[in-house]
């Protein structure tokens, strides 16, 4: 599913009104209906509600919501910003008047004076309809004072469309103190790009999308660089199995992995690969991993390195259909030199994780040698070690878009919403996963899984996208069995097969 920049959302709004002949106030009514339902489903009329409405259509949304709730027995207190001489938008005036004629009362906050602000208690539900997509720059002066007052209160805060002061886009300059910190954000039609960045998690809180029926053809024809991966998309990509298939048709994956004390990474990456559906899995590891691998994952073959404790040379003995490098390799100079030599001669896309990423950080000239369309799977720390410290998630994602293009590689930036960044600068946010997966070894499983998918002939960008989705879903399934504290990386690997099956054959399908 595509998601859009603020500018695009505004354009889709505008074009829907033109093409479908829907007046702006009708769209606001639809938004208000959906949002009022969400709010009333959560809180009873006995709770004190304080609405802050701004001068634009975000304020109009808030006023329309308050009017609907009044009709259902709620008694909201409504404050409208009175910005010296500045006009309210036409819709803001319309919904203010509608509220007044329904018997409501509007209080004013003079933003230029010493602010007189209402008491907000722990019981209060604040509805933040100050600013939405019409915000031009960061909030200042009296607006800042109001926002900080809301943030410092112990009230529960619901933001309309986006937390006031925030943009929906990648925004390197955002100052969080000047943005409302919402517990719940009710956003119109699409989640915004900024919702998928960890930095903004405390600003957005839980988010829900309220549909207002924007024109589907206009949405379809509006290009976007940003997407959320959906299950139907992954289902469509997964190839069905022919009854006549043999293991020779299903590829052969090589994992360069493990060192003394980190044989577990070799085990876990091999398990991830084995559950991917690949025909054969081989581990290239130092001799010290031999017995461990043969007993822990007997299904995988073992290609011993000449060195006992670390990988010292990567000369694959067979023509493997995909190679993944990194889990548990350690940072020994011998291993880095082996990776260095290998990356200079190997020309097919590879998967690069963990210590292979650390090798890129130590020897940045290797970035130029990476096979085109290789998949790099860094978490935030690994990314910054290679590409320099990034001040925020917005800047990091922008940097990932830049380097994916420069080096023509795929970057799978791991986090709560893992982002796949492609060389064409398209970004795919992955929605699956759970905090239960924040464990050592889960990345090793992902590397094995992606390598296994690539070995079966899935393109690198497809393998990375499907791998992240399946891995997250397997983690969710593991959490059902073991709980958020108890999941291990091995549990994630063990659930990969079930996750793939549930994507291919959803329960509600006959
Ligand atoms: N058709 C529509 O117009 C729809 C509008 N919707 C709502 O309307 C919102 C957008 O409405 P608007 O375009 O009126 O914009 P906003 O209501 O977000 O803000 C516009 C107002 O804020 C002022 N402003 C902008 N930046 C400021 C700053 N830094 N400091 C102080 N004042 C500032 C502007 O002068 C203007 O008065 C959406 O976020 C959404 O909530 C939705 O209900 C869907 C349909
Ligand atoms: K808002």
TrEMBL record:
Cofactor remark from the record: Binds 1 potassium ion per subunit.
Which coenzyme or cofactor does it need? K(+); Mg(2+)
GO MF terms held by the record = ADP-dependent NAD(P)H-hydrate dehydratase activity; ATP binding; metal ion binding; NAD(P)HX epimerase activity
Summarize the subunit comment: Homotetramer.
Q: Where does AMP bind?
A: 414-418, 443
Q: What is its EC number?
A: 4.2.1.136, 5.1.99.6
GO-annotated biological processes: metabolite repair; nicotinamide nucleotide metabolic process
Q: Which family does it belong to?
A: Belongs to the NnrE/AIBP family. Belongs to the NnrD/CARKD family.
Keywords recorded for this protein, A-Z: ATP-binding, Isomerase, Lyase, Metal-binding, Multifunctional enzyme, NAD, NADP, Nucleotide-binding, Potassium
| Catalysed reaction, written as an equation | (6S)-NADHX + ADP = AMP + phosphate + NADH + H(+); (6S)-NADPHX + ADP = AMP + phosphate + NADPH + H(+); (6R)-NADPHX = (6S)-NADPHX; (6R)-NADHX = (6S)-NADHX
| Binding sites annotated in the UniProt record for K(+) | 58, 128, 164
Q: Has UniProt tagged this entry with the keyword Ion transport?
A: no
What protein name does the entry list?
Bifunctional NAD(P)H-hydrate repair enzyme
Record flagged with keyword NAD: yes
Q: Which organism is it from?
A: Paramuribaculum intestinale
- CDD domains attached here? YXKO-related
In this chain the YjeF C-terminal domain maps to: 230-503
| Residues covered by the YjeF N-terminal domain | 9-220
Q: Which residues bind (6S)-NADPHX?
A: 57-61, 132-138, 161, 265, 328, 379, 444
* InterPro entries the record matches: Carbohydrate_kinase_pred_CS, CARKD, Nnr, Ribokinase-like, YjeF_N_dom, YjeF_N_dom_sf
- Known role: Catalyzes the dehydration of the S-form of NAD(P)HX at the expense of ADP, which is converted to AMP. Together with NAD(P)HX epimerase, which catalyzes the epimerization of the S- and R-forms, the enzyme allows the repair of both epimers of NAD(P)HX, a damaged form of NAD(P)H that is a result of enzymatic or heat-dependent hydration. Catalyzes the epimerization of the S- and R-forms of NAD(P)HX, a damaged form of NAD(P)H that is a result of enzymatic or heat-dependent hydration. This is a prerequisite for the S-specific NAD(P)H-hydrate dehydratase to allow the repair of both epimers of NAD(P)HX.
């Amino acid at each position: 599913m595509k998601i859009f920049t603020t500018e695009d959302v505004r354009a889709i709004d505008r074009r829907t009104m033109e093409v479908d002949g829907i007046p702006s106030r009708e769209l606001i009514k639809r938004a208000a209906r959906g949002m009022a339902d969400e709010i009333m489903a959560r809180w009873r009329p006995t709770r004190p509600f304080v609405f802050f409405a701004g001068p634009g259509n975000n304020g109009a949304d808030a006023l329309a919501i308050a009017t609907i709730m009044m009709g259902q027995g709620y008694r909201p207190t409504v404050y409208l910003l009175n910005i010296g001489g500045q006009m309210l938008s036409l819709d803001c005036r319309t919904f203010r008047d509608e509220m007044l004629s329904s018997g409501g009362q509007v209080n004013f906050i003079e933003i230029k004076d010493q602010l007189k602000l209402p008491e907000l208690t722990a019981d209060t539900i604040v509805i933040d309809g100050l600013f939405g997509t019409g915000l031009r720059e960061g909030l200042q002066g009296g607006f800042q004072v109001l926002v900080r007052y809301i943030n410092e209160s112990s009230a529960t805060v619901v933001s309309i469309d986006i937390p006031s002061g925030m943009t929906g886009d990648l925004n390197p300059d955002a100052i969080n103190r000047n943005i409302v910190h919402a517990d719940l954000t009710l956003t119109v039609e699409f989640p915004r790009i900024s919702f998928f960045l960890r930095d903004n998690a405390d600003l957005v809180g839980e988010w829900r999308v309220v549909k207002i029926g924007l024109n589907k053809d206009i949405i379809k024809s509006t290009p976007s660089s940003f997407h959320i991966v959906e299950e139907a998309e992954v289902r469509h990509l997964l190839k069905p199995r022919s009854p006549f298939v043999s293991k020779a048709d299903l590829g052969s994956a090589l994992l360069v992995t493990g060192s003394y004390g980190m044989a577990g990474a070799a085990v876990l990456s091999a398990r991830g690969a084995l559950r991917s559906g690949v025909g054969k899995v081989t581990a290239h590891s130092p001799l010290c991993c031999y017995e461990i691998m043969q007993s822990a994952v007997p299904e995988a073959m073992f290609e011993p390195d000449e060195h006992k404790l670390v990988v010292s040379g990567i000369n694959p003995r067979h023509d493997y259909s995909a190679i993944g490098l990194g889990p548990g390799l350690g940072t020994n100079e011998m291993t880095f030199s082996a990776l260095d030599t290998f990356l200079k001669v190997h020309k097919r896309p590879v998967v690069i994780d963990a210590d292979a990423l650390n090798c890129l950080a130590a020897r940045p000239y290797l970035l130029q040698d990476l096979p085109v369309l290789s998949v790099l799977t860094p978490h935030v720390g690994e990314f910054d070690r290679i590409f320099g410290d990034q001040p925020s998630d917005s800047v990091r994602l922008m940097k990932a878009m830049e380097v994916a293009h420069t080096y023509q590689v795929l970057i799978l930036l791991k986090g709560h919403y893992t982002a796949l960044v492609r060389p064409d600068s398209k970004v795919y946010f992955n929605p699956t996963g759970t905090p239960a997966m924040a464990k050592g070894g889960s990345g090793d499983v992902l590397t094995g899984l992606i390598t296994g998918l690539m070995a079966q002939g899935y393109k690198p960008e497809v393998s990375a996208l499907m791998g992240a989705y399946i891995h997250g879903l397997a983690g969710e399934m593991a959490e059902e069995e073991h709980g958020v504290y108890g999941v291990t990386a091995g549990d994630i690997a063990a659930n990969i097969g079930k996750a793939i099956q549930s994507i291919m054959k959803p329960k509600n399908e006959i």
